[in-house]
Amino acid sequence: MGVPLRSGNVIKPSEMTRLTITTFAGVFLGFLIGVSFPTLSLTKINFPSSLFLSIDLTYIEDKHSGLSTRKLFSALSSLKDDKVVMVASNKSEKTKIWIPTNPRGAERLPPGIITSESDFYLHRLWGQPSEDLTIKPKYLVTFTVGYNQKSNIDAAVKKFSENFTIMLFHYDGLTTEWDEFEWSKRAIHVSVQKQTKWWYAKRFLHPDIAVPYDYIFIWDEDLGVENFDAEEYIKLVRRHGLEISQPGLDANSASLTWAMTRKRDNTEVHMDTEERPGWCSDQHLPPCASFVEIMATVFSRDAWRCVWHMIQNDLVHGWGLDFALRKCVEPSHEKIGVVDAQWIVHQGVPSLGNQGQPVGRKASWQGVRERCRKEWTMFQDRMTAAEKAYYEAVESNPF
Ligand SMILES: *[C@@H]1O[C@H](CO)[C@@H](O)[C@H](O)[C@H]1NC(C)=O
Ligand SMILES: *[C@@H]1O[C@H](CO)[C@@H](O)[C@H](O)[C@H]1NC(C)=O
């Protein structure tokens, strides 16, 4: 057991040779740069950038103090990203890296090493990292689940191809139980007890982590998917340019609150509807258009980046979000819509909604309901206040 661990402390002869060669190459290159500056424009030399990264900058600095460090750094950076590289003009501090255009907090790092985004791709523990992935899923689907709904989720997951990363948020603490399903082994499991879909989404789906995915499905567990195919769905949202969407709800759904999300026949998608008289002040506004519900929402990458920022950490039920989604896309009545050709049944299984705390004579679900309504009002109030503050600031400080 100790053997592989200890071997890390010993520099093997072959490694020694490599080190020496690297150092030598660095010295030589440094010398080259030193003598050729400024008559030779560095940016025009086609050095492989990996070679550049192995140069010991401190060494160059010490031996060629006449060299313009600023020029060297900007030449280096132009070989990498287009980021501006700045160093202190004070000589004794020259070798310190401080790059204001780096992500906040990472100014001391050379831009080439910065990895500011991530993904949910699984890697092996052995072999070449570049060969770990046989397929890079382009879409992400998350379900917020309790084990009671396992057969429903199993059926749903099977409607999503291998082009999807599957992620389960477990609100009941049961995770390994899902391993009876073959797909569970490649799924991402997040287990935190009694939290809501939007709570998980805010914590685990930061836009910089969900960034490899063209579309992100954030779904409930009680959806019937017999007439749904995810790949076909994506073709339709692409074709119609929908940034935020949901599948149409079949007439057999448990609750059909809104006309907008009801499935229509003989059409691929729809983006507006007639509501009950008096419900829509504007035909382009919710609930007549620019509107989907939050049970089976699908976001494009860009839409999700905006919506994530709108989700409040403490308003966990997400009530009010549906009416506000339109603030993230423009023009919203053309980019938010319902896909009729791929549709689902909302089964309305009470699940997490039953996991509240009974208070006095009130059942646990009543407490949850009340909280939902309260959150809806709080969200509206915050949005109104935020917009008011913005417009007041603009008025008092015109450009
Ligand atoms: C350069 O930096 C050193 C160390 O921070 C400082 O002591 C010195 O005064 C600085 N010199 C100038 C010219 O700013
Ligand atoms: C997965 O994506 C690739 C590339 O877009 C596509 O060719 C393939 O048909 C997709 N797989 C399924 C099952 O649709």
Descriptive account of the structure:
The protein is of the alpha/beta class and 399 residues long. The protein folds into 3 domains: 103 residues, no CATH class; 212 residues, Spore Coat Polysaccharide Biosynthesis Protein SpsA, Chain A (Alpha-Beta Complex), CATH 3.90.550; 44 residues. Helices cover 33% and strands 12% of the residues. It contains 12 helices and 9 strands. Strands 1, 2, 3, 4, 5, 6, 7, 8 and 9 form a 9-stranded mixed β-sheet that branches. Helix 6 links the parallel strand 1 and strand 2. The protein is globular and about 75 Å long. It binds 2-acetamido-2-deoxy-beta-D-glucopyranose (2 copies). The site of one 2-acetamido-2-deoxy-beta-D-glucopyranose has 3 residues, from loops.
In short:
The chain is of the alpha/beta class and 399 residues long. The chain is 33% helix and 12% strand. The protein contains twelve helices and nine strands.
Topology:
Elements: H1 2-6, H2 13-36, H3 49-53, H4 57-63, H5 69-79, E1 139-145, H6 150-157, E2 164-170, E3 188-191, H7 197-204, E4 215-219, E5 223-224, H8 230-240, E6 244-249, E7 269-270, E8 296-300, H9 301-310, H10 321-324, H11 332-335, E9 336-346, H12 364-396
Parallel strand pairs: 1-2, 1-4, 2-3, 6-9
Antiparallel strand pairs: 4-8, 5-9, 6-8, 7-9
Helix pairs in contact: 2-4
Bound molecules: 2-acetamido-2-deoxy-beta-D-glucopyranose (NAG) (2 copies).
One 2-acetamido-2-deoxy-beta-D-glucopyranose (NAG) is lined by residues 161, 163, 231.
